[in-house]
Design a protein that fits this description.
The chain is mainly alpha-helical. It contains eight helices and no strands.
């Protein structure tokens, strides 16, 4: 059912020519914009959280990203931006209280639905914050291997800081 709604949402977006509108509105001014992956990541999180559908978010945002980069030969930025859309959509869907996967996970864990959503938030916020910074840097670096190393290092550093903070709270 969710997949059918996602296809329907994509059909509406195609009928309204959203990707053409965005391309004409933005023009060629953003094809080298380094913040596009970070912005697309945040939009995808918001949209997936609001709709409860990662597939619907894919269907809406991927055509927009491809339209933004269709004119230029900037394939690296298009790949990074599509990656940001995919990651943001899954992130937003993971903590959306109206998402089918979140509902099924709480039912499978036999816990109250709101409790399940709130227990997932610290993990999602931590990874989303690291991803946010990584996508911001990726817009400037534009190299997948380097960004993988940087993202891994940022995540390890973040977990180390969290561990130190938690350790200080236990000793106090």
């Amino acid at each position: 059912m969710i997949l059918v709604f996602a296809w329907s949402l994509k059909g509406v977006g195609d009928a309204l020519q959203i990707s053409t509108f965005v391309e004409n509105t933005l023009g060629g001014s953003v094809t080298n914009g380094a913040i596009i992956p970070m912005v697309m990541f945040m939009i995808a999180i918001f949209l997936a959280f609001s709709t409860g559908s990662s597939w619907g978010t894919f269907a809406i945002l991927i055509p927009i990203v491809t339209a933004i980069f269709s004119g230029g030969g900037n394939m690296e930025m298009m790949v990074i931006s599509i990656s940001a859309v995919l990651a943001g959509a899954v992130c937003g869907d993971h903590v959306s209280p109206i998402s089918d996967t979140t509902i099924m996970a709480s039912a499978g864990a036999q816990c109250e639905h709101v409790t399940h959503v709130t227990t997932q938030l610290p993990y999602v916020i931590t990874v989303a914050a690291v991803s946010f910074v990584t996508y911001l840097i990726a817009g400037f670096v534009r190299n997948a291997l380097i960004m993988l190393v940087i993202g891994f290092a940022l995540m390890v550093a973040t977990l180390y800081v969290i561990k130190q903070i938690a350790g200080n709270k236990q000793t106090a």
